[in-house]
Each structure stands twice: as C-alpha cells, then as structure tokens.
Specification:
Length: 291
C-alpha cells in the first residue's frame, strides 16, 4: 500500500512538473506549428506564373466559371500555398460538450500537403491535435499535453480523408491552387458542380453547391471516414461529410469565408462537430513553409 501511494505521489509530482512546461509549449502554438512545417522539407515556392484570364476559364463548365469569378481568381497568378488561423469550437461525440479551439494550418500544392494543428482543452487538460497530408499519406494524431497520445489514425482511410479535406480547403479558400491537370470539373446543374482531385495514384471527389452569386455554400463528399457516433464500437465507416458556409467577405479582391461548419450526415440526422471562424486578416497566400 505504501508503495502504491508513493507511486501515486510521484505521478502527481511528475504531472505538476510536466503541466506548466506543456502549457508553456502550447502557449507558443504558432511557433511550434511553424517549426514543424519548416521541418517537413516542403518546397520553398515556384516562380510567379502568368495571371489567370477569361481564356483560362473558358473550357470549364459554366457554374465553375461563375464560382471562380466570385472567388476572385481572375487577373492573379495561380496560388501555390496559404496559411490560416482559425478559432471556434469542437466536440468529440454526440454527448460530448463543446470545447473552444484555436487552429493553424498550412496548405501547399507543391508536393501537395496539408498541415493542420488544433488546440483545445479536454477534462481540464490541453490537447493538441494534428491532421496532416504529407507525401501522399494522411494522419490524425492527438496528444494530451502534447505528450501522451490519445488518438493516432493512419492508413488508407486517412490518406483519402485528408486528401479530400485538402480539396475542401482549396474550394473554400484558394481555388486557383487546384487549377491544373490534377483536377477534373463536371457540370451538375446551374448551381452545382462535381470536382475531383488526383494525388499520385489516389483520387477523391466532391460536389459543390453555389448560391446565385456563385459563392460555394456547401461541399459534400463521401470520401471521408469516421467512427459511427451511434455505434462507437463499429470500425470506421464511409460517411457523407459536408461543410456548409454561413458568410463571405471580400478581402484584397478575394472572396473568403467568414464562418463555416463541419457536419456528418447520418440516417439518424446531421451531426455537427466543428464550428469555425477565420481570424480577421489571418489568411495569407504564397508563403514559404514555416512563415
């Protein structure tokens, strides 16, 4: 019994030492994020290309052209990267409470990659989650105090899911990043189109829904996998994942979303698990990794 109490005491002492250190590390989230992005070995950037013109858009389906004009891609060179800072709330299950979160992400079309870090608090302890698509591999990793792993998802399902999330990011924030041979666009009707993106031997697809102005108001795909919240013991299932947008703003000639959600559509009803705002002025384009 004395030994057990001693171990418990030492554990509490260890936690008391680790917690301030971990909180300090999490407090410099942007610095940690930048260091990790810099360490991946991504390309530093291409030469500036020619501006996108009406002739560039002409071969595309009409709703895609309307969408790209709304997004403000004309007369600008094709974007190759962006960095964003988001705030909002997130929950891990149907019966879980919402936690406030902050997130940083960096996307590049050069050696196509997406690095997303999100910080929140779970049961009073800081949690840092990383969603990444790097060198053709997807991963979801979450650590309490950024020390103790509580989730680590890898494999084909995550490769597909992270790639389609990259596609979602591009559609909503930087569409000229996917204006190349890696992308296929298809007419559905006057207010929607299908888009597919290829990375290596892998391809993902989604449907985009527009309003009258050409703003993308929703993105829907079945190329993401999740645990069934109505049957947590069930292995990963392929679900319908949507990201409805609630507002748009013009910044520097670009149209950028102000608020959006991430929602799983289940037969029992929709399950919203994330609600994001893009921090004012935080979206920066064509930056080398780590800046």
């Amino acid at each position: 019994m004395k030994q057990s109490k001693g171990k418990k005491f030492l554990g509490m002492v260890g936690l008391a030492i680790l917690l301030p250190l971990s909180l300090s590390a999490c407090a410099s989230m942007h610095d940690r994020f930048s260091r990790e992005v810099s360490g991946i070995g991504l390309p530093q950037g291409p030469a500036v290309g020619k501006p996108i013109t009406e002739d560039s858009l002409a071969p595309l389906p009409k709703p895609v052209q309307r969408y790209l004009r709304f997004m403000g891609v004309l007369e600008k060179p094709r974007d190759w990267s962006f960095r964003a800072n988001l705030t909002g709330r997130f929950r891990t299950g149907l019966n879980s409470g919402w936690m406030d979160i902050e997130a940083w992400q960096y996307n590049t079309r050069l050696d196509l990659a997406r690095i997303f870090h999100m910080r929140g608090t779970m049961k009073g302890l800081p949690v840092l989650a990383r969603d990444t698509y790097v060198h053709g591999k997807g991963r979801m990793l979450a650590k309490v105090l950024d020390l103790f792993t509580v989730a680590d998802g890898q494999g084909t399902e995550y490769d597909i899911g992270e790639l389609v999330t990259y596609l979602n990011d591009a559609i909503l924030m930087a569409p000229s990043m996917i204006l190349g041979t890696e992308t296929t666009w298809a007419f559905v009707d006057e207010n929607s189109f299908d888009v597919s993106l290829k990375s290596g031997e892998r391809s993902v697809k989604a449907r985009v829904f527009l309003n009258e102005e050409g703003a993308p108001m929703n993105f829907s795909t079945t190329d993401r996998f999740c645990e069934d919240p109505y049957d947590p013991k069930h292995p990963l299932i392929r679900g319908q994942w949507t990201t409805p947008m609630e507002g748009w703003q013009k910044v520097g000639g670009r149209s950028l979303p102000t608020r959006g959600k991430a929602v799983w559509q289940f037969p029992q009803g929709p399950y919203t698990y994330a609600d994001f705002d893009i921090a004012s002025g935080s979206l920066q384009f064509n930056l080398p990794p780590g800046q």
